[in-house]
Amino acid sequence: MKQPIFTADGDATADIVIVGSGVVGAMIADQLVSQGYSVLMLEAGLRIERAQAVENWRNMPFENRVGSDYQGLYPQAPNAPAPLYFPKNDYIALSGPDGNGFQQGYLRTVGGTTWHWAASCWRHLPVDLKMKSTYGVGRDWPISYEELEPYYCRAEEEMGVAGPNDPALQSPSQRSKPYPMDMVPWGYADKRFAEVVNAHGYNSVPIPQGRSTRPWQGRPTCCGNNNCQPICPIGAMYNGIHHVQRAEMKGAKVLSEAVVFKVDTDQNNRVTAAYWYDAGKKPHKATAKAFVFACNGIETPRLLLLAANAANPNGLANSSDQVGRNMMDHSGFHCTFLANEPIWTGRGPAQSSCLVGPRDGDFRAEYSSNKMILNNITRVGPATQQALKLGLVGPELDDEIRRRAAFGVDLSISLEPLPEAHNRLTLSKTRKDPLGLACPDIYYDVGDYVRKGAEAAHKQLEHIGQLFGAVEFNITTSLNANNHVMGGVIMGSDPKDSVVDGNCRAHDHANLWLPGGGAMPSASVVNSTLSMAALGLRAADDIGKMLAKG
Amino acid sequence: MKPTSSSSPAPGQPSAAAGKVKLTGGISRRHILIGLAALVAEAGFWSNPLFSNAQTPAAPAVPPPPSPEALAFLNFSKRITGHADLKTDTGVRIEAAMRKTYPDFAAQSSRLGALLQDGQEPKALLAAATDAGLRDLTLAIVAAWYTGTIGKGKQAVVVSYAEALMYQPVSDGQTVPTYCNYGPLWWTKAPPAIRVSAPVAPMPAPAPATTGTPEPKAKT
User: Fold this and answer.
1) Nearest chain A Cα to B174, which residue?
2) A109, A37, A24, A512: which is closest to A274 by C-alpha?
3) Quick one: which of A257, B63, B96, B132 is 20 to 30 A from A159 by CA?
4) Residues sharing a CB contact under 8 Å with residue A206, sequence separation 6 or more, in sequence order
5) What rounded mean pLDDT belongs to chain A?
6) For residue range A34-51, what is the model confidence (pLDDT) as tens digits?
7) How far does A62 lie from chain B, in Å, by closest CA?
8) Is A398 on the interface with B (CB under 8 A)?
9) Does B14 touch chain A (CB under 8 A)?
10) Low-confidence residues of chain A, pLDDT below 50?
11) Entry pTM
């Protein structure tokens, strides 16, 4: 077991230094420590205990819980703020026509934001990697689906994904291996909803999920606590912490409350050292052969910009001026209604079925695709909020809660953004974090491509509403964020207009990898985590190859 | 978030998971306190996975007896909610939180108590409270029992979680989130009979909260 070496002062030397301990960083750590390399992970945030997070959630006011305050239960390190919304903090300043639609909820904690994800493990479609050559919009990836596919298989294995093994229910069906576990079984709501909408081409399919349908590598079988977001109480859902713990058992070292702020490069522009502040604001130096920045689609470009040095005056990896540009998220909205029959969502995991009929088609030359998730978190909270507003008491109140919870539907619609250079993260000139490091500013405008896609989705939803005889049919008017942050260190074959190559290696630095959502050149319309993990595994292979050469 | 002191169980007190709450098994804290021997007969206790790891409190702190005002509040609460089985210690917590949140609470609570009549339905009691100019406070009391929370924003006080009455109307078909009451993959079973009528016309309620999208509040 090879481990990082620390000096008496707390400086460190390792084969690989990974900044960030979320799903991507932790999975890379596990890969490389398994190959016999010493791995140091520097995590800005705190280490979280699952049981404490569950208790914190139960102790939060109703208003926070019903408002999906998935950030509030996770304590933040004093030196590493992340966005908060109840009330808002000003860590990120948003501007532009859709700035309000880019209010992300990511965690800076050991294990990362998958602490409060819903575990959807989608693949991109093959065509999603060829948007420019197929539809004339966006960008092509420098790698093909066929090159990425083995990594999707490995990522599914690593995360213990339960997905449909019937090709008719897959999206996409181009797969070389079956899912490690068969699909999370549908409850009545998923079955009934699919039965009604699939007759009209909406193609509701099972969501592939990082969730155990049988005991899996120390994870228990899901028992439907209906609390995937913001915390799975029993660990049946995959979290990045699972790979953190695996890597630690093999000798990887994780330092929490370690905020990286500066990077040294040599005459060949190879990264030689990263510096971090410990919890007491004391600086330390980490030396390594290979460096990975996998600290989320916002924090990775922020760190690259913060780490500007004499040889890289516009920021690390930024000779293209693309660091922080092309920011993307699956901006979305919600549709709620009361059906004319009981649907009974709220039984089982947070989400198990999704309408992917509008996921692809020639229309993508003109406007965004969409997907529609049937939310399955209990509607009791929203139902109660409404029923109380109606001024009901006694049996009438109880009946109204039951009616709204059982007949209520909440669809979460995601839209597909295009990478646009003007959607940009920059460093604030005025706002600094407690360490004096500049906070991020983000300009965001989804553009007409997404706006037209939203209009198309509205029409589809009105049709779906009719199929269910919808009462109180409502579509939210403002776009919401979905925490699928992509694009800020975009991948491409040309170093002039992209930040990393097809292995997520920085064009400018031969020993720096920037895997994760930031590298993705197209967003598709599906949750980004499985693609991020696949890119992380591909980067890990590339790092292993470089280290093996010595 | 750091829980407010009033919402955290005190050290040594049972947490929600250790039996403060009533769930589908029909178990109350009293059952826990009776002792294990008496519980052997409670099939529901052993069949409810929630309690399989519950510890019998070694030396439960005996709370002080509730004040007459708290008991009167509890009585009013039972009548306005139509739930006769409300727990005394929760009522005490809600009454204390409402005293802090509503300046005139003591006097108004006393006026509410005077409105009680034999055989009165909850909605008749609400009508009487409305006539007395006490509708908002009455609905706030109902909201406290249903949501487990009194007040808003930083002043919010959490008094209950799983015991919040909102979960009861669907307890035959859903679990209280975070709890695992029915075992692995339980949701594949058929949902219960609906028992309530289908919605036929829109009601004047605001659009519902949506799941997974934070509804950011103004900076305060």
Assistant:
1) A347
2) A512
3) A257
4) A163, A164, A169, A183, A184, A186, A190, A352, A353
5) 98
6) 999 999 999 999 999 999
7) 6
8) yes
9) no
10) none
11) 0.92
